[in-house]
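Anyone have tokens for Beta sliding clamp? Sequence:
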Amino acid sequence: MKFTITRSTFLKTLNDVARAISTKTTIPILTGLKIVLTDTGLVLTGSDADISIESRINVADENNDLQIESIGEIVLPARFFSEIVKRLPEDTMTLEVKDNFQTVITSGASEFTINGLDANNYPRLPEITADEALTVPADVLRQLINQTVIAVSNQESRPILTGVHFTIMGNELVAVATDSHRLAQRTLTLPSASTTNYDIIIPGKSLTELSRMLSDDVEKIEIRIAENQVLFVFGQTAFYSRLLEGNYPDTSRLIPTSSNTQVEFDAPTLLASIQRASLLSHESSNNVVRLELNITDQKATIYGNSPDVGNVEEVLSFNKLTGDDLEISFNPDYMKDALQGFGQTAIEADFTAPLRPFTLVPTEDKEKFIQLITPVRTF
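Reply: yep, here.
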């Protein structure tokens, strides 16, 4: 096997695929990068058994400047190989596999020889034969992931909560994540109705990596779902993820249907205030800020306190405040994560009682996006 290629093109594809390669794997060959060269192009594959990424460089695309001398396949140690490619001196590089899987990489006056492995021993990617594919705008999917993945659990004691629960019925997709302290739910109207209903749980780690790969030049993403795998296809890349097994808890009953106090904020303004209040709360062992809403005086005040450093008090600007007086404490980091998901919009915060979960929704399309946060008992 031998080919020459523009180094920047190869490196971009290599970096994408390397997202799936882990040094901590029970299958040694998965620490490697699989390279397959055919007459039509080059295919790079990386996998950690949970996530697999396959990306293609077509010989027909002149921008790739791929010149094929002989076809073949090899698995190379990913960490060393990517470091070598990054540091090669010239704009082009040549890779040649010789006897006993010895691989020579040359660029200008530089030549590296590394030991490869037989590609036949590399695990096969799952075959997903789902007849129906869902097509979603890439920017919408990226936003949905970023708005929900913040609420997945990091605790392996309840593995089901480390994923985002997707339910697809007809032309509606609902994504929910919770770590039992907070919840994020986003509803999406699909461009085309699905004839099959799906109920799947995708690991949060997989979705985070997928979101990072969806650059602005990716317009649409195709989703195919099989029994224990989901496949996302965009551009020349196929992104596979295993699905979590089990039943996701019924989260619909956690969301309050009524409230006693409502306040409307501009999300960026409130976010800035929470960031200031948390400067001191982070120095305290319990990391809590307190919000006080006074209906009579039409006043909203936030307090942050650290016994060792001092305290902060700030009167918040808001658009509207109605209902009953309220004093509630919460984790400011949960609030910051939630507010960042709303971007530049105005939001409505709905409270029922000091120790009951409260919700944040955009003032427009309230049913499309909801964040729920459990308050902290401070007495």
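Helices lie at 7-18, 78-87, 138-148, 204-213, 267-281, 332-340.
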